[in-house]
Design a protein that fits this description.
alpha/beta; 9-stranded mixed sheet
């Protein structure tokens, strides 16, 4: 980030440490404002739009730089005098007032072009300064918004000759802002270039934050490779930032291309941001390089055994412009580390519920994407008034089992949830609008990223009472029970390892499919190690008389998308009441 503003991939990244504007005059004179106008002209020239035809005809030029300069001159003039005054006093613009409607349309289009960009601001922190950046961090975006609105309204009045009767305080500043700083981490020599990439220390999001990505599905598996993908890697550190994530109790440093800024920011609603001191004093357990522009289409991971480091790598591509590629790689890296520690990764949902009658239970539901784990949590939430006093989400997608004091306990990996909008009650989604990130809300597999638990909550460690496999494909008769428990450990292991589900369109899979232990994010790649852990943990679960079974959500059955999870949730609560 060595420029005032970088515009790429429908994103504008402003570096407030290079330039910050205390007045309208400073903003209008800035390199950043000129870059926005150039980008605006280029967009309309490439589209051969009516706006470009007007600009080309009025300024008698087709040169982007000249047109941008002319636009900036007119805008600066119209902030200090009316259109009629400009036409009367400046020979160059003596017929400008005859173009009132066209000019007003151009100004409106510039404003809308700016607002349709995803806008991010950055403040670079130096190691010698402490609190100043934080204050500026919170105030800078407010100031930018005020300046942009002030300029826009002044020009509207200058051109039209009257003030609007209705004022809409629309978001015109940055959608999100970050404070960044560099750190010297004790990387092996071949990774020393990463120290030139600053890491994020604070994030501010203007919610509701709505973003559109080039893709809305993830495809395939992350493959393990045995040659380091970072060998001879050349990347421009000015094009990358680092989000240092705490995934469970592991540190995963996510280095992402600024064109994928949406995903780096969204990570803050899903993974706990590591403290600045943690980053400065610790080598990570894993790193992930996301968005490298190379000629190879690959999303892979590599285990650097010599340096005890797991490395994830994903190339830059439109089809990789999806948050699932960031989230799932982070979870894959975390799960591989967890298995090395003797923990069993669980792809599913875990909740602690306390019913009105005082009975409580810790429930873990395992299932791959679309099997009904998140939908079951939503069903629990829908039945809250009827059954639940309160509910704590341990994990919404990925957690782990650990054996402590002879008990199997559940731990979470994420503080947030990345859920399909279609699987949430619409009223609930709107209630979360003030703290949520909406991705592609008008498309299939639209997603919502929202915080659901604190880091302390997910790392509490909850004794498992129910461990259920989410079956979304069996249709039940009217009086047939949704929940069945296993008497035989080997039968249970077989069902859980088969990982069968009816694909729902959350990935590129279709129909009835199977995935090893319903978890393609680590266990699939390390099946031999995971087999050992499954045997160990299921033996402990059955020895402790923990209820292991299936919960048939019917989520994949047409017409049962809502009633199926509700039926199974109600049945589960009745079982808990009788404990």
């Amino acid at each position: 980030m060595n420029k005032e503003i970088t515009i790429s991939n429908n994103k504008a990244v402003l570096n407030f440490s290079k330039a910050f504007f205390s007045s309208s005059e400073e903003l209008l004179r800035s390199e950043g404002f000129y870059e926005v106008l150039s980008s605006f002209v280029r967009f309309h020239k490439e589209g051969n739009t009516r706006v470009y035809s007007y600009l080309e005809k009025f300024f008698i030029s087709s040169d982007i730089d000249k047109l941008a300069s002319e636009l900036r001159d007119i805008i600066k003039i119209l902030t200090v005098m009316s259109l009629d005054e400009a036409s009367d006093k400046i020979n160059k613009y003596y017929k400008l007032n005859e173009q009132r409607d066209n000019l007003l349309r151009v100004v409106e289009d510039i404003y809308n072009y700016w607002r349709k960009l995803e806008r991010y601001s950055i403040i670079e922190k130096s190691s010698s300064e402490a609190g100043l950046e934080v204050q500026n961090f919170l105030e800078a975006n407010i100031k930018l918004k005020e300046l942009i609105l002030d300029i826009y309204r002044k020009i509207q009045v200058s051109i039209s000759g009257f003030s609007p009767k209705v004022f809409r305080q629309v978001p015109a500043g940055a959608n999100a802002s970050v404070i960044i700083r560099k750190s010297k981490i004790a990387y092996p020599d071949y990774l020393d270039f990463l120290n030139n990439i600053p890491f994020i220390t604070k994030v501010m999001i203007e919610t509701p934050y709505i973003t559109y990505t080039k893709s809305n599905k993830r495809d395939g598996f992350f493959k393990e490779v045995y040659e380091n993908p970072l060998t001879d890697l050349e990347i421009n550190p000015h094009e990358f930032l680092c989000y240092p994530a705490k995934v469970a109790d592991n540190l995963v440093y996510v280095y992402f291309h600024i064109d994928y800024m949406t995903h780096g920011i969204s990570a803050s609603n899903l993974f706990e941001l590591a403290d600045e001191e943690e980053v400065l004093n610790n080598k990570p357990d894993a790193i992930y390089i996301f968005g490298v522009k190379d000629d190879n289409d690959r999303d892979v991971f590599y285990e650097d055994k010599k340096n005890n480091l797991i490395i994830g790598y994903c190339n830059y591509a439109e089809k990789k412009d999806y948050f699932g590629y960031l989230k799932k790689m982070c979870l894959t890296l975390n799960n591989i580390i967890s298995m090395k520690k003797g923990y069993l990764p669980i792809h599913g949902a875990g909740v602690n519920v306390v019913l009105h009658n005082g009975k409580s239970a810790n429930i873990v539901i395992l299932g791959d994407s679309g099997a009904g784990k998140s939908e079951s949590i939503e069903a629990f939430r829908s039945l809250a008034k009827e059954y639940i006093r309160y509910m704590t989400i341990i994990f919404d997608d990925m957690g782990s089992f650990r054996i402590e004091d002879g008990e199997v306990k559940a731990y979470g990996s994420e503080t947030g949830a990345f859920v399909r909008l279609d699987d949430l009650d619409s009223g609930y989604a709107f209630k979360q609008i003030d703290r949520s990130i909406f991705m592609n809300p008008d498309k299939i597999n639209a997603r919502l990223i929202m915080p659901v638990a604190s880091y302390d909550d997910i790392m509490e460690g909850y004794k498992v009472d129910f461990f259920l496999y989410a079956n979304n494909y069996d249709k039940l008769d009217d009086n047939e029970k949704s929940i069945r428990f296993f008497d035989d450990k080997e039968h249970a292991i077989q069902v859980f390892k088969d990982g069968a589900r009816l694909a729902k369109g959350t990935t590129t899979e279709e129909g009835l499919v199977k995935s090893y232990f319903a978890n393609p994010f680590g266990p699939y790649q390390k099946q031999e190690k995971c087999d050992e852990l499954i045997e160990k943990y299921f033996t402990r679960l059955f020895a402790n008389n923990i209820r292991v079974g299936t919960i048939r959500t019917q989520l994949g059955i047409e017409g049962m998308e809502n009633d199926g999870p509700l039926k199974s949730a109600r049945e589960l609560f009745e079982i808990i009441k009788e404990l």
